[in-house]
Amino acid sequence: MNKDPNFWNRRAYISSDMTTWMAIHGNLCLALRHPGNRGPSRIRVISFTKQLGQFLVESGAITEQELKAAQNLEAEEGSKEFEVKP
Q1: Proportion of the chain above pLDDT 70, given as a percent
Q2: Number of separate domains in the chain
Q3: Structural domain contains residue 9
Q4: How high does pLDDT run on average in the chain?
Q5: Global pTM?
């Protein structure tokens, strides 16, 4: 693994189709439900997943209501960080 701390602060860009982004969002949500997924990287993955969800709304893939419903489901399933207040 690269030991240079500056390396890990670099931005990385990746391009994919919307179907793949939807699949990645769903898989990240499922992974975050796992009771063993409580390590230090969890905060970064939650942040990324929330950003990806907002991207899906802004791009027209899903509606804001669908995102809120999905986030509340994740909260019910154990990922309280996704809870959206009505």
Answers
A1: 99
A2: 1
A3: no
A4: 94
A5: 0.87
